[in-house]
Amino acid sequence: MNRRDFNFQLVAALSALAVRGEAVSFPQPQPRVNGKRLNEQLRSLSRFGKNAEGGVSRMGYTDADRDARLYVMQLMRTAKLEVSVDAAGNILGRRAGREATLPTLMMGSHIDSVPQGGNYDGDVGSLGAIEVAQTLAERNFELRHPLEVMIFQYEEGGLTGSRAIIGELTKENLEVVSTSGKTIRDGIKFIGGDPDRIQSVRRKRGDIAAYLELHIEQGGVLDREKIDIGVVEGIVGIRDWEVTIQGFANHAGTTPMDQRKDALVVAAKFILAVNRIVTEKPGKQVGTVGRIEASPGAPNVVPGRVRLSLELRDLDATKIESLFQTIRAEARRIGKEHGTEFTFQEYNINNPAPTDSEVRRMISEAATELGLSSKEMPSGAGHDAQSIARLAPIGMIFVPSVRGISHSPKELSRPKDIESGANVLLRTLLKLDAVGG
Amino acid sequence: MNRRDFNFQLVAALSALAVRGEAVSFPQPQPRVNGKRLNEQLRSLSRFGKNAEGGVSRMGYTDADRDARLYVMQLMRTAKLEVSVDAAGNILGRRAGREATLPTLMMGSHIDSVPQGGNYDGDVGSLGAIEVAQTLAERNFELRHPLEVMIFQYEEGGLTGSRAIIGELTKENLEVVSTSGKTIRDGIKFIGGDPDRIQSVRRKRGDIAAYLELHIEQGGVLDREKIDIGVVEGIVGIRDWEVTIQGFANHAGTTPMDQRKDALVVAAKFILAVNRIVTEKPGKQVGTVGRIEASPGAPNVVPGRVRLSLELRDLDATKIESLFQTIRAEARRIGKEHGTEFTFQEYNINNPAPTDSEVRRMISEAATELGLSSKEMPSGAGHDAQSIARLAPIGMIFVPSVRGISHSPKELSRPKDIESGANVLLRTLLKLDAVGG
Question: Is the interface score ipTM higher than 0.85?
């Protein structure tokens, strides 16, 4: 242990006192990740599945995914993590802690992408976690807790790998055909897992002391407000309905305006009602009609039926329910006014996944100590953290997405912001290590 | 000539005096069609192309169409018409008049249907015209003018046969594939025409003294208002645009409501604006958005682009233009408000075809004399009369469509109303015969 390492351990110890509310002043220098290395590794990772537009198409279970996994496992080994692939196909990098009885501190994310995706979604958190492990290894810094870095497989296919960890990947799920063309079962075999032993990867409550995930925001709030770090309040709940409006199809030439039961005019009123109801309440809830289909769909026929999608998202499940009740009541009123009928069929519910208030506090504090601005915000998108929230306290750290663009080759997060995010991840991990157990 | 026929000729002569404004009292009995026979023949015609729902699928150039044409030609021969098929495939039944130099009085309609069509659209006017000719023949009543009954071919394919009569069926039109699967060229050969001589069927201005068409309303106005006869003011003009709204596609979870450029919310405002602008002006104009497509069209993506159809119809072309200008200005305002852009691409213009005021007056008078209620109304649908209007004065007689349903096996016009319509057709023809030349 050299002097620098000694200082580093001291910082951690003092940090622990600080979170207990005791006044401490930190010695300099602060532990920092190697931002240049991290950003170079991100560029290297982007070779795998590179697409013509400058992003990646590295869908889970493709050759590009498998090649990228080999690269990432090599980085983990360099960071002195014991690497294995679990039965679900997740990549696990592990290092023992000083206190053998303590539960694990876990960091992670994913490296699979959507088709025509970008170079940052998942990658920043995955390589950021490995960089934190590398930084600790280079300083011979041993945590009290065991450390795990998890690269969850096929996140873009519905949090596949992380759902296996909480025992929610069913036999039916395994038969679903993924974007790679393989079933999830065959995909798991392809990346070195064993779908028949999938239940063996399941963790219990208490196994994980806390889970941290660094991620790009995928929205434009931080970039627009010029804030360095987003402290995620929780991952929003999502409910989806298919809405059908039944009117009456008629000849557009021979049916006077006042005799129509035009399902598309009614749909237009509904779309504006959704927008108004969602917007007029304070808060960050969102409501979207993204898909619409009018039948029979000819320019010269008054639409007799419209089918459209309704999606509501918020951190608070009761708020989603209350918004839905208001929207449904308004739909009934509009429907009655026009002699048309609304039906709502719910086909998807994701419950909100709140983050842990103590972990949030540590993330904010870490940002402040690093001289970074931060704000609390919901995550509107789903993340593997959402699965792990079922078992353990979680925290998520967002870095800005330039212009909020994501799931696109134009996705961009700035090197400086990525480095800042990884430093907040490191510092929060140390705070957690100091207090846990 | 028996006594009854003598009376009949007297009626026509007195009728001629009457239209000249001289006071005459009509002797009884009035000339009437055989309504029972007409309705039986309509039922017989419905055998050809009968579909499972009780209507017909008798698209132009199908076997059912050809078989039905043979049946209709037989009815024409019985009505003492000289039958021929012209080079365009129209069926022409002709009878000479007393005064060889006079132009022809023409009645007609069509017997082809849309797929899954009904038993009345076109058929009522076709068999109604033949019944009028039959009634005259049975009474040995010779008109002053030559009489022509025209069964125009493939009306549902865009007034095909009647456009040949005015010289507007182009070589390009002949290569279009019809709903039968045959090109129009092959279809014309199939029904006994000669597509290479199509220009020979063209009539000149002055060849036709007047054209009358009896038709079902295809809308619900007469049925709802319990009116026997519609006196058609004209066939509306139609203009169609493809409207594109360009917003910005974004993640529906991570994009706050106030940061969206949601093309579907903008489309909803546009649809309601069209409805409001078209409705708030007095008159019978109609405006329809019948087709809509939101891209990318996923429940979890804010729509970045919407394409929709806009159709405006009115008897007055300047009114259509003025409505369009108002709609486009409002669209620009809405677009600006939301940071989205509207483009309008016009792809279809049908000019309005007014009916002749003198012919309208005769139709109204004929209805009144027969003890029938009538009202002037536009035809919102296209008809062969619209073609002939380019060459000659036209008149159209509507009978009620029960509940306004058309282009459907549920299409229904009552036997009594059909008989009334044919009687108005007969009487109007006699009025025209008396004044013309």
Answer: no
